[in-house]
Amino acid sequence: MRPFTYERATDARAAVAAASSAGAKFISGGTNLLDLMKLEIERPTHLVDISRLPLKDIEELQDGGLRIGAQAANSDVAADHRVRTRYPVLTLALVAGASGQLRNKASVGGNLLQRTRCPYFYDTAAGCNKREPGSGCSAIGGFNRIHAILGASDACIATHPSDMAVAMTALDAQIELLGADQTLRRVALVDFHRLPGNTPHIETVLRPGEMITAVVLPPPPPGRQLYRKVRDRASYAFALVSVAAIVAAERGTITAARVAFGGVAHKPWRGTEAEAALIGRPASDATFRAAADAAFAQAVGRGHNDFKIELAKRTLYRTLAQATQAQ
Amino acid sequence: MSNVVDTKNADIAAKTTQIALTINGHVRRLELDPRTSLLDALREDLHLTGTKKGCDHGQCGACTVLINARRINSCLTLAVMHEDDDIVTIEGLGSPGALHPLQAAFVERDAFQCGYCTPGQICSAVGMLAEAKAGWPSHATADVAAQSTTLTETEIRERMSGNICRCAAYPNIVAAIRDIVEGRR
Question: How many angstroms away from the CA of A308 is the closest CA of chain B?
Fold first, then answer.
């Protein structure tokens, strides 16, 4: 690990000021950052510890929504009674991710900012445009079983590893950001992460020094909320494919549908094509198949990950069938 | 680690910092390189070697300790981040003459072979039981909105999945934890 200086931020305003200098980085749970620092993939020269800032609360909003402080632990969000009863898809996604120990440490903000688990990103001997811009993508033509099938580029086919962010994407979450100039702004989660394009090392729309202060959930949408995750072992593994679905049906007709996918793209992927293929249609096998086909019409396999296209379709199909059962 | 001369970030001297950590009820003063993980501080500086280093990347759980009664991986956190926290390691749970009930259950059930993962398993189980008592749901919970949870074998296995046992003593680890859950100890 490279040397760095450390400071504990006393308030949010001081934190963004301290993190605006070159080489500075926020640290919160540290579960991903320290792992990457040990491998010298992340090389901050100054760490600003924001884990003790008073940004841990989960608050009710007047419109019926919920504001989740960015420093809340993943486990606290998953266990929150309001989340469990009104946003169960979020609890389901959170408890499907990582381990008990990691969820106790990982913050909500840090979860959104975690880096890909592409093995070439971790392998400092390999080319990786995300880790070292211009060094090529070793996953293209390489071992790419876990890689993206939607929205990838010739520069990068890595996926975003979060489960939590997939549920939040289906819930239309907004991210609250405090800038280095001390102004607050809100960004829709679907616009927060970027597609790789030619700059896969730039992963979000965060500005230098900007800090995530909260995730804002609008009031819960109608319908049953489900999260289904497919992975190589039964627990404590990243998703090959995951689906967050919120579906309402009345008298056999789908009246509302939200769909998001994990493990398929450089960002949590909102399935707008699938949603359009569901709303107003009968809750039937044919509809679910059409939605799955629509969702992955643009999907591109890279060899080892070709199976993910069919796997993702089937995972969506199964989730939709379950969501509309006896409703 | 603090003695290594790093030529890459030579402009930042590997300066040490003085901190105080509360471990197993005792305040311990340390002078550390900020890079020191809590795990290395425990083992290398304080010689509390009960906490084990397995993967050092948060994948095996051997380094699990309790911070403010919650289980975490001590390899993935910096010691300097834990001033004012209450840190409990396996040495603080019990001693050879006065075993923690989980330690006694592990011995009775032969819940290990090599024993390397055991301190992490036990610290993790202590944290896990508190989480279940507080009604926290898991991936194995059928209804996450339910206020309470029953620790079935499936629940225990899911909740303990962050602790790997290379000897695969899992059946006996689960049996030991069930002894506590079901009041046999």
Answer: 23
